[in-house]
Amino acid sequence: MSGTTATTQAAAVPARVFWTALAVVGALLLLTYLVAFDNGAVSQSGMLLHELMHDGRHLLGVPCH
Ligand SMILES: [Zn+2]
Questions:
Q1: Would the pLDDT of 12 be above 60?
Q2: Ligand 1 centre and the CA of 25: distance in Å?
Q3: Separation of 45 CA from ligand 1 center, angstroms?
Q4: Is the CB of residue 9 less than 8 Å from the CB of residue 35?
Q5: What is the pLDDT of residues 28-54, one digit of tens each?
Q6: How remote is the CA of residue 38 from the centroid of ligand 1, in Å?
Q7: What is the pLDDT of residue 36?
Q8: What's the distance, CA 23 to chain centroid?
Q9: Residue 28: its pLDDT value, please?
Q10: What is the b/e burial string over 29-62, where b = at least 16 CB atoms within 10 angstroms of the residue's CB?
Q11: Pfam families from the entry (predicted)?
Q12: Residue 32 in contact with residue 62, Cβ under 8 Å?
């Protein structure tokens, strides 16, 4: 009997889980941007965020000074 085919069906992800995961990923990307690249350009905070995140920048290996 060679007519059997294995069909795989992706499990449905509940919308609440999808949107929560998307929000978490977005928040982490925003945090990464603020820590590593902003330098006051978008946040208009001058060097405040840079100084607050300074140790984190070095921990992540972001060029700093
Ligand atoms: Zn530094």
A1: yes
A2: 26
A3: 17
A4: no
A5: 999 888 888 887 777 787 788 888 888
A6: 14
A7: 83
A8: 9
A9: 96
A10: eeeeebbbebbeeeeeeeeebbeebeeebeeeee
A11: CbtB
A12: no
Per-residue pLDDT at 1 exceeds 80: no
Would you state the pLDDT for residue 2? 57
- Give 65 or 19, the one with higher predicted confidence: 19
Compute, in angstroms, the gap from residue 44 CA to the centroid of ligand 1: 20
The span from the CA of 61 to the CA of 51, in Å, is 15
8 CA from centroid of ligand 1 (Å): 50
Fill in the amino acid letter for 34. Answer: L
Alpha-carbon dihedral sign for residues 21, 22, 25, 27:
negative
